[in-house]
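Regression check, magnesium ion case 627:
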Amino acid sequence: MNWRDTFASGLEAIRAHRLRSVLTMLGIVIGISSVVLTVGLGLGAQDQVRAQIDALGSNLLIVSPGSSTSSSGVRGGFGSASTLTTEDAAALSDPAAAPDVAAVAAVTQAQTTLVAGTTNWTSSLVGTSPSWLPVRNRTLSAGRFLTAVDTDAVVLGPDTASELFGGRSAVGQQVTVSGRPMTVVGVLASTGASSATSSQPASDDDVAVVPMDTARSLAGAPSSSVSAIYVQARSEDVLSAAYQEIDALLANLHGDTDFSIASQESLLETANATNRTLTVLLGGVAAISLLVGGIGVMNIMLVAVTERIREIGLRKALGATPSAIRRQFLVEAGVLGTCGGLLGVALGVAGAFALPGLLGQPVSVSVPAIAAAIGVALAIGIGFGVYPASRAARLTPIDALRSE
Amino acid sequence: MNAIIEMTDVRKTYATGALEVAALRGVSLRIAQGEYVAVAGPSGSGKSTLMHIIGCLDVPTSGEYVLAGGDVTTLPEAHLADIRNRRIGFVFQQFNLLPSLSACRNVELPLAYAGVTPSERRRRAVEALTRVGLADRLAHRPGELSGGQQQRVAVARALVTDPALILADEPTGNLDSAASADVLALFDELHAVGRTIVLITHEVDVARRAQRSVLIRDGRLAA
Ligand SMILES: Nc1ncnc2c1ncn2[C@@H]1O[C@H](COP(=O)(O)OP(=O)(O)OP(=O)(O)O)[C@@H](O)[C@H]1O
Ligand SMILES: [Mg+2]
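Current build output:
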């Protein structure tokens, strides 16, 4: 009995009990499809976070107020007592003190209400300097960015501009920002990143950017504190050198490390750590379902051995060796597992296409994960088939033939 | 003539719980190559038990059994499977065909375990089925055949490997007289071409067709 014959007879046996085989596979189908989906959700979330963090700029270090003793990194920094000031930003811009720093942009952040004619729109107000545009890696779709001499000028994000002015050109229009009339001088190009990360409360495409001093006077609190300082390093190679320069400089100025510095990489790490926990948790549930599926396969194979005891006896009488019988049942269990795995992958991939529409969560389907899932399904089928198969192999031909 | 079967003082005792049943109590039997032997005896006398031991489906509790010159009393199961496959063809009272396979696939089965290639298997199965007069029933499943036809498929399966020994346990027990005659005619043909046949029956006129009859009673051969 060669492998092809064994395989064909395995498929035949499964086809002979179609409903039972499908029910047996169900556990594996559910397990594999949930593995494909959870891994896909995890990877999708990672891709999303990476896209958002990449959109922040390149070779970027983000200095935020508050020390980063907690693992949440910069997250706790926003909104806590601000210890960073425009003087800090100025100090960091000094090429003698921080030679690896290319550009610096301090920002203040607040909520604001924009009014254009009869249209109201709530957006986030960013107060910053002209260096913001290159540091944040942004471009303009119309008009110009802020200059050092601007006072009552505002640059709108693409979403903000279309909310306020619809299809009309925004540049040159008047808009009231927190009660103060200003002129729109430019509109930013879209970043393409879908929505804000939690560490970046301002949506990248829905902002109103004004000069730092203007933002301060709008807030009515003319202190020199800022929400964050974006620092761009000269290149990726000097990123850690720049990190150390900033750290030393600010610690010296403040006499205390009451600030924290995050790189894009560390932001990514933090975000992914949370994702990973969730993925592992969901993956655990999927693994339990796979285990249940495996036990289902074992159960049905034991039933099959009992049911086909005469067939086993006959095959042995005709010359089947114990190992040929064992192989026959192992292949059958393996085929059950693999079919379950294939169905599960099909279901999982279908889910991966359907879910983003339902949940707004991206799901990425990875080929290695699918191959691994099918491998796992095969292994489960075979693993849980070992015991029933060796029971069949051990039957003496005469006992098997005699049983009615 | 060379002996194909040589049994010396073979005993078989079944232990069911505390009870011991002696099914064979010292059987010594010699069957020469090419002989046609009928084994007769009342129900429960040990005919089937004897056939199972002759067919290497079961091993004796004690005694010696030499099949075709080789002692098979102590061989491992994998070895016995090989002997059954190459040297012995079985025909059972209940036909014992696999219901999901066509007649042709049923006949191919022992060849598959012998490692014969699919095309050769097919050729020999068709040949065997033609020999039993079922060339036009190759694709039929057992459920689509009459009892007599099913037993002829079983005979085809028994002879497809060209075994030296054909063992039949009441092959006509479930058949009417016409179908019985067909099957017994096949055995006559096989005997004519030199096959050794051991046929178990309790019908006197079936036993009479054989060259020699041995009578078994209470696990012992009667003279
Ligand atoms: N597996 C077994 N366990 C216990 N006792 C058994 C077993 N197989 C057979 N026997 C006993 O051995 C004896 C001989 O049985 P066997 O089947 O050989 O009889 P038989 O001559 O073929 O009868 P029949 O003509 O009715 O088929 C019987 O008494 C039977 O009860
Ligand atoms: Mg019997």
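Comparison notes: Residues B 47-48, 169 surround magnesium ion (ligand 2) (CB under 6 Å). The helical segments of chain B are 47-54, 77-87, 103-113, 118-131, 147-159, 177-192, 204-208. No diff flagged against the previous build.
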